[in-house]
Amino acid sequence: MPVSVQYDSVWTGATLVTLQEGRYSAIPDGAIAVRDGRIAWLGPRQALGPHDAREYQDVGGGIITPGLIDCHTHLVFGGDRSREFEQRLSGVSYSEIAAAGGGILSTVRATRDADEDHLLAAAEQRLALLMAEGVTCIEIKSGYGLTLDSEMKMLRVARRLAERHPIDIKTSFLAAHALPPEYHGRADDYITLICEEWLPAVAAAGLADAVDGFCEHLAFSPAQITRVFEAATRLGLPLKLHAEQLSSLGGSTLAARFGALSADHLEYATADDARAMAAAGTVAVLLPGACYLLRESQMPPVAHFRQQGVKMALASDSNPGTSPACSLRLMLNMGCTLFHLTPEEALAGVTLHAAHALGVAPEQGSLAVGKWANFVHWPVAAPAELAYWLGGQLPCTVIYRGRRR
Ligand SMILES: [Zn+2]
């Protein structure tokens, strides 16, 4: 008797858009065999050898992509800023709004005041929208608490979301997001507090998968971010940075110098920054939602990133101020339309390159043997359709760790 290969399930009937090497790398009439939640085999259906499987699924056409990865979000927050949006459109300036207690500090206030269950319930609504369109891994940052207790509260909510829903969640500790009002005029003291007390506490509690910061005139200087990065590195935590969003301070080169997973935003990054990021393998995370909402005219230097071979990811930046977005697929369209990415680059940006930006590429981000069986069936003719449709939801079937979600 020949020994038969055993699979839990075999999926056929679609073109596999594998995203291996960040390219479509399509396999027409493909098959994916799943065992123990991971991809055990994939290739042309005709090449699938003798086997047994408990379950066969013929999806009847369309394409299968890796599960989508949203690698930059501020999904957990209190309140909303729709009133401020309305005011800005009627001519009230951002500084007037901030002077009246609006802007990021209004979110900080609402987040501090909200109890954990309320934050969880509000974030769950936004998470559901992302999950419905194929997201199987998401990053969530703190950064609206700006006290140790409320920062940890945000991170605990992110951990609870992961316990309650079939999705992978990576957390980033972003206390260096904005200066809390209590520290007005004492930014260096606040950085000292983060480095000496908060980071060790958050690391000891196992609440942070990475450490992030905001390097900008209205946030923290490269020298202050350097101190945060040194402290995080001593604790063995990976790094990310909001850099070059509104001006060129060299934050992305700083991130590269520390071997950061990613530098994010990057509208004002230079050719030298791109070279430094390429050398370090630091991913460029592009956030078209914020660009759009702020009507930014400066675009990230995509040509330099391409030329230097910097991996480009795309993310929703879901946040109440500058990118109230709950659709990663809309970002595919905006990445192409605003930043001139190709649909193939955009799709790599929400799969394989997003996985690199979170340090999870060995486990997910492409269809490959050994990775988690996280994939999405889309009843569309070609992968460019995922970037083509502007808004709305495409029907899709999401498989998370080998099971229909
Ligand atoms: Zn952000």
TrEMBL record:
A biological-process GO annotation: L-histidine catabolic process to glutamate and formamide
Q: So where does N-formimidoyl-L-glutamate get bound?
A: Y144, N319, G321
Q: Which UniProt keywords apply?
A: Cytoplasm, Histidine metabolism, Hydrolase, Iron, Metal-binding, Zinc
Name it: Imidazolonepropionase
Keyword field contains Transferase: no
- GO CC field: cytoplasm
Catalytic activity line of the entry:
4-imidazolone-5-propanoate + H2O = N-formimidoyl-L-glutamate
Q: Where is the Amidohydrolase-related domain?
A: 63-379
Q: Where does the chain bind Fe(3+)?
A: H72, H74, H242, D317
What is the species listed in this Swiss-Prot or TrEMBL entry?
Sodalis praecaptivus
